[in-house]
Amino acid sequence: MMHGLHFGRRLRNGALGAIPFAVVAVAWLLLPHVVQYPPYMMPSPAQIWLRMNELLADGTLQHNLLTSMLRLLGGFVIGVGLALAAGIPIALNRNAADTFKPMLTFLQSIAGIAWVPLAIIWFGIGNGAVVFVIANTIFFSLLNNAVVGIQQIPNVLHRAVRSHGAIGRDVLFSLILPGALVQVTLGMRTAMAYGWRALVAGEMVGGTNGLGYMIIEAVQFFHTDTIVLGMLIVGILWLLMDRLLFHTLETLTVVRWGMLKRE
Amino acid sequence: MKASRGRILKGIAGIAALLLAWQVSVPLVGLEPYLYPSPLRVWAAFVDLMQKGILPVYLVDSLGRYAAGTACGVVLGVGLGILIGIDATASRILGPFISFMFAIVEVAWIPIFVIWWGYGLKTILMVIAYVSFFPVLYNTIVGMRTVPAAMVNAARSLGAGRLEVLTEVMIPAALPNIITGFRVGSGFAFRGMIFAEIIAAKTGVGYLIFEGATNQQTDRTMVGMFVIGLTWLFIDHVYVKPVEQVTIERWRTVTRADERE
Known about the structure:
The complex is a heterodimer. Chain A is mainly α.
C-alpha cells in the first residue's frame, strides 16, 4: 500500500516534470509559423531526427560517440590515478605538503580549459591533446579530495592495522588507498562535471573527431541540425552519467558508509 | 606564528625550485622554444605584452565580461529561484527541465550562439550568464524548498504575512544554498568565459592563450595561463570567498561549494 502510494507520487512528479519539455517541444514546432527566420537559425525537431538517422546510418554518430567516451574514460583513469599517487606523499608528509601545496593551488586555479592551446602545441591535434586536458582537469579537481581523505583516516586505524602486522604495501592497499578513495568518490561528480566540459571544449579546438568536433565542424557549414543534435546528446549523456553512474556509485559507497547525507 | 612563517617559506621555496628546475631543464631538453619556452622567455613575453599595453586591455576586457555576465546570471537565477521556490508544484514541474538545461553544458552552447549572434561580446556574455544562472537557480529553489516548516509556521503564528515570511524566514534560510550556487556558478563561469574567448573573441585572456598557440608564440600562451591562474585566485579571494564569509558569519552554515545536490 505504502509502496503503491510512493510509486504513484513518483509517477505524478514524473508527469509534472515532463510538462516543460512538452511546452518547449510544441513552441519549437509552432515557432516557424509565428516568427520569420532563416531555417538555418533553428532547425525543426523533424530535421534533427532526420539528421540523426543520417548520421547513424553512415556510422558517424556512433564513431564520434565512442571516440569521445573512450577519451573521457582514458583521461578519467589517468587523472584519478595521478591524484591518488600525488595525494599520498602530500597527505603523509608535512614538508611535502608545505612545499607543494601553494604551487598546486596555483596550478589548480589555471582552469582545465586554459590548457587546451598548450596541449595542442605539445601533443598536436587529436587524442593526446584532448586526453591530456581531461586528465589534467580531473587530477587537479580530485587532488585535494585525495589529500583530505588520507588525512582524515583516524590514527587509531593506523595503529590497528600496524598492530596486526601490516607493513608498507599492506598499509597502502588496505588503509591509505581506501581512505583516499572515500573522499575521491565524494569529489567525483564535480570533477566529472569539469572533465565533461574539458572533453567537449578540447574536441572543439583540438580534435579531429568526437562529439565536440562534430558540433563545431557543423558551424562552418551552418548545419544547425547537427549542432542541436550534438547539444541534446551532450545533455542526455551527462544526465545519464551523473544520475545513473555517479549517483549510484555514491549511493553504494559514501552514502551507505554515512559520509554523505542526501536530502 | 613561527610555524606558519616556515610553511610560507617552504611554499615559496617549492615554487622557486620548480621555476629553477624548469629554467635549467630547457637547455638540457633542447626542444624548440615554441615547444618548451624557458621561464625567462615567458617573463620577457610578459614584459613585452605589458609594455605594448596588450595584456592590461585584455585583462580589463575579460574582467568586465565576467562581472557583467555573472551579475546577469546570478540576479536572474536568484530572482526566478525565489519565485519558483515559493510554490512546491512549480518547482516540481520545472526541476527536471532545469537539470536538463544545465546538463547541456555552456561549452556546447557556444556553436549555436555563434550561429545566432556571431563571434563577439553577445555570445561571450550569454555563455557566462548561462552557466552562472543554472546553479544559482537550482540551489535557490532547493534552499527555498528545504526551509523547515516549523520555522515558517512559527513566523506565521507570530502574525507574519506572506511577504514577511518570505523576506524574514525563507530567503535568509535559503541563503546558504544560494551562496553554494553562486560559488559553483562563478567557477564554471570563469572557465566558460576562457573557452568562449578562445572561440568567439578578438580580445581577452582566453583569446591571448589561443592566439599565442596559433602563432607558435608559446611564451605568450604561458603568460596568459599564469594570468588566468592569478585572476581566478584573485576573483575567488576578493569576490567569491568574502560573500561566503559574510553569510557564514551571519547564518553560520554554508553547504560545501562542490555539492550540487
